[in-house]
Specification:
The complex is a heterotrimer. Chain A is of the alpha/beta class. In chain A, about 40% of the residues lie in helices and about 20% in strands. A 7-stranded mixed sheet of chain A has the order 3-2-4-5-7-6-13, with helices on both faces. In chain A, strands 10-12-11-14-15-16 form a 6-stranded mixed sheet, sandwiched between helices. Chain A has a two-stranded antiparallel sheet with strand order 1-8. In chain A, helix 3 (about 55-70) runs parallel beside helix 5. The termini of chain A are far apart. Chain B has an 8-stranded mixed sheet with strand order 3-1-4-5-7-6-8-9, with helices on both faces. The chains are: A alpha/beta, B alpha/beta, C alpha+beta. Strand 2 of chain B pairs parallel with strand 1 of chain C, so a sheet runs across the interface. Bound molecules: thiamine diphosphate (TPP), iron/sulfur cluster (SF4) (3 copies) and magnesium ion. Thiamine diphosphate binds next to helix 4 of chain B.
């Protein structure tokens, strides 16, 4: 079936086709349409599922952990402040070693309410033990959610998966998607399985006090789960292509990298602009390609190194910032390349809070990078003070003049 | 139900990490006996997280999910929704009782939002607050349930505020069942759990839990202090169902005039946490304030009771 | 690309914080006792109050005290309406 839908409605379709049985979620722009559509599916009898209208994201995640612990396929959706609000339980969800999938619509964080695209929210959740898949298209959202359950429920993994996509660009814009039929999806995704559950006949206690002598192994097992996920993500992508159709790369997605001398590295919807920029740069005589990081955790260090190490230049596009350091994707790309090849790595931080990243901006900076005209550290090419900032600054000066702030 | 009819099976296994005279384990024993094996338990961060004993063994013989501090209500919603699915699919023949076990900190303070949410959704579960009137797990800091004038490690001269009353807040949620219980009245407590088990929807039971190290009394006095709390009117026993509050056990006897209120001083003196009200000198003001509040509540209740004996249909809201 | 010389750690598979219900989950808690409850069976009327009040489930319905686990809190002695239980100083075994 072909649909023209918003990314959010497509995500709801993903949950529906994955035969999710419990959904617990709390509304936040720009995620709301996901849960509205799921409610509608349930109300109209199209989805056999319990929907828990929790009173906060902290509770959304708690309820999801609990339903997963009962052995039922569970789903949630959130964004930005919601993800931050449930942070404590993101750790709990991974630590409990149960499969579950949540969608996060990548959005900026306050203060200054900004509902537009930004990756700060998911990057701040990076070290919680979740697998993170970042999508670049509506079709990829749908396919990734279904794949996410396969990955999450794989006995070698048993960890939660966060499927991330960009606010507005993907969440709210309409695009055409191919929706597979249920039987096809069922052939790819077996019924729910997990390594343990709350069982009345076999009572076990999860999560009590644990001492230093025992704790490290629990964390190491999680670490290994994420390591195992590398292979499982690849297999899931391949098998999905075979049984359902549709392929968006595995840990990474490459564009025109076969004969590239230089590369752009990006995550999320900006890949579309980056592709245009690559084509443009090629026309201007710069052999650029694009490597899109699809799996941020586990991080595709080997794959990136294989692509980038032989090149002359790599320019990372970061849609978030690690304050006091640099663009986080930049840090990780450099870490992946440590001790390999002589590629020069550059970084632009841009597109925060939904600001457009134009292909011209990308191309301009890429040329500068290729020509050695860009500083080899994080730069902020789109920062500029405008009239609004000036008006606000004058206001602050007035306050200081009154002795109100010093 | 008489004691001899209580089930013999222990679902709280001996040799746990609980302190000597722990009210939490004492309460759990009675609750588990009343609810039985077909129960899924979630323990919220509290002393119970610790006294169930550390990994890889457990004193809890029920499938148990330990959860973060603020999650009680929400966890129940997830467990219950999933259990409904399992029943619908025929994986479970019968829906198990969903039981959340939390302290007063996890109930009155950090967890009240999740609890209120679950109650508003009328999630099908029993929420138990074992109320030891402080954060015992972290070393006895004040909570919203700590009574006026009680010492804690961060109210060293006695708490300056009066406690709130979450049981009444739960009554205001209009849930199907709310009850309070006391360790000193095990048959009353057992009956309330058994009643709660029969009902669908959100049920709230709060058990006063005198804690020897936190309240500073000898471990042998847990039950004695619990009894004094009821006899002095500091803790009231009732259940609320179908819009009607029924006082029970010791509280009922005081209201109906079969026994007299014990002066609160006797209760206060039994615990070191109120020691500063008596040493180095007697704090008439604060002792008086506490007694006065109790008197006011019971005078109203006794009056209402007498009125009711004469005029059958008068229904007054329970005083707070 | 340099080959990994040593494995980071052994393969340990799935390890999570699941605990098994067990008696004596912190060992024989009888060793905590300073005073020990002693029953005078003659006086006992089997009212079962000590059975239900014991926080550690150390008294059976037959009013037998399990000294392996009894922590010596003294509640049973305090609450026995017949004065059938007395707390006496524990003679520590070697
Ligand atoms: C979010 C969070 N904040 C603080 C804590 C620390 N903490 C654990 S238990 C506890 C107090 C529990 O008090 P209560 O609920 O009354 O249970 P009790 O220990 O008295 O049995 C606190 C503050 C925590 N676990 N999580
Ligand atoms: S501090 Fe109090 S509630 Fe906590 S384990 Fe000890 S006796 Fe029980
Ligand atoms: S409380 Fe006393 S009388 Fe009652 S059963 Fe126990 S020992 Fe016997
Ligand atoms: S002393 Fe305490 S632990 Fe020992 S049997 Fe009596 S009540 Fe139980
Ligand atoms: Mg407490």
């Amino acid at each position: 079936m072909r649909l023209v839908e918003t990314g959010n409605h497509v995500a709801a379709w993903g949950a529906r086709l994955a035969r999710v049985e419990v959904v617990s979620a709390y509304p936040i722009t720009p995620q709301t349409q996901v849960i509205e559509e799921i409610s509608r599916f349930i109300d109209e009898g199209e989805m056999d599922c319990e929907y828990i209208p929790v009173e906060s994201e902290h509770s959304a995640m708690a309820a999801m952990i609990a339903s997963a612990a009962m052995g039922v396929r569970s789903f949630s959706a959130t964004s930005a402040h919601g993800l931050a609000y449930m942070h404590e339980l993101l750790h709990w969800a991974a630590g409990i070693r149960l499969p579950m999938v949540m969608v996060n619509v990548n959005r900026a964080l306050g203060p200054g309410w900004n509902i537009w695209c930004d990756h700060q929210d998911t990057l701040a959740a990076r070290d919680t033990g979740w697998i993170q898949i970042h999508c670049a298209s509506h079709q990829e959202i749908l396919d990734s959610i279904i794949q996410a359950y396969r990955i999450s429920e794989d006995p070698k993994v048993n960890l939660p998966v966060m499927v991330c996509y960009d606010a507005i660009f993907l969440s709210h814009n309409y695009m055409q998607v191919e929706v597979p039929d249920q039987e096809t999806v069922d052939r790819f995704l077996p019924p729910f399985r997990s390594l343990w559950s709350l069982d009345l006949e076999h009572p076990l206690t999860h999560g009590s006090v644990i001492y230093p002598d025992d704790y490290e192994e629990v964390r190491y097992s999680m670490f290994q789960g994420l390591e195992n996920a590398r292979e499982v993500i690849k297999t899931a992508a391949e098998e999905y292509r075979e049984k359902v159709g549709g392929y968006h790369g595995d840990l990474v997605d490459a564009y025109r990298m076969e004969d590239a001398d230089h590369a752009l590295v990006a995550m999320g919807s900006v890949a579309s602009e980056a592709r245009v920029a690559v084509d443009m740069l090629r026309e201007r005589g710069y052999a650029f390609g694009l490597v899109r990081v699809r799996s941020y955790r586990p991080f595709p260090a080997e794959e990136l190194a294989a692509f980038l190490a032989p090149l002359r230049t790599a320019m990372v596009i970061d849609r978030s910032i690690s304050f006091g350091m640099e663009g986080p994707l930049f840090s990780e790309v450099k870490a992946a390349l440590y001790g390999r090849g002589g590629v020069s790595v550059y970084d632009i931080v841009t597109g925060l809070g939904g600001r457009d990243i134009t292909y011209e901006l990308i191309a301009e900076n890429a040329v500068a990078a290729a020509e050695g005209g860009l500083e080899p550290r994080t730069t902020w090419p789109s920062v500029r003070i405008n009239e609004h900032h000036l008006l606000s600054k004058r206001g602050v000066e007035g306050l200081r003049g009154k002795g109100g702030a010093s | 139900m008489r004691l001899k009819d209580f089930p013999e099976e222990e679902l709280f296994l001996q040799g746990s990490a609980a302190c000597q005279g722990c009210p939490g384990s004492a309460a759990i024993r009675v609750a588990f006996k009343a609810l039985g094996r077909n129960t899924i338990l979630s323990v919220i961060a509290s002393c119970t997280s610790v006294f169930q004993s550390p990994f890889p063994v457990s004193a809890l013989d029920l499938p148990t999910l330990n959860m973060a501090f603020a999650t009680g209500g929400a966890t129940a919603s997830g467990l219950s929704a999933a259990a409904d699915r399992l029943v619908a699919k025929g994986v479970l023949k019968e829906k198990p009782t969903i039981l959340v076990w939390a302290g007063d900190g996890g109930t009155y303070d950090i967890g009240i939002q999740a609890l209120s949410g679950a109650a508003e959704r009328n999630t099908d579960f029993i929420y138990v607050c074992y109320n030891n009137e402080a954060y015992s797990n972290t070393g006895t800091q004040r909570s919203g349930a700590t009574p006026y004038a009680a010492w804690t490690t961060n109210t060293t001269r006695g708490k300056g505020e009066w406690r709130k009353d979450v049981a009444q807040i739960m009554v205001a949620h209009g849930i199907p069942y709310v009850a309070t219980a006391s360790l000193a009245y095990p048959t009353d407590m057992f009956r309330k759990f058994a009643r709660a088990k029969e009902i669908k929807g959100t049920r709230y039971i709060e058990i006063q839990a005198p804690c020897p190290p936190g309240w500073k009394f000898p471990s042998s006095h847990t039950i004695k202090v619990a009894r004094l709390a009821v006899q002095s009117g500091m803790w009231m026993l009732y259940e609320h169902e179908n819009g009607k509050t029924t006082y029970t056990a010791g509280t009922q006897r005081i209201i109906q005039g079969q026994s007299k209120l014990v002066p609160v001083e006797e209760y206060l003196r039994a615990q070191g946490r109120f020691g500063h009200l008596f040493h180095p000198e007697r704090d008439e003001k604060r002792i008086g304030e506490i007694q006065e509040r109790i008197n006011h509540v019971f005078e109203t209740l006794q009056f209402t009771h007498k009125m009711k004996e004469h005029i059958m249909d008068i229904e007054l809201a329970p005083p707070r | 690309m340099p080959k990994r010389k040593r494995k980071a750690a052994e393969e340990i598979g799935f390890v999570t914080t699941l605990s098994v219900p067990s008696e004596g989950s912190v060992g024989l808690t009888g060793s905590w006792r300073i005073f020990v409850p002693v029953l005078d069976a003659e006086r006992c009327n089997k009212c079962l109050l000590c059975w239900i009040y014991c926080p550690e489930a150390c008294i059976g319905k037959d009013i037998r005290i399990d000294y392996d686990y009894c922590k010596g809190c003294g509640i049973c002695a305090e609450e026995c309406p017949r004065g059938a239980i007395t707390m006496v100083k524990e003679e520590k075994k070697q």
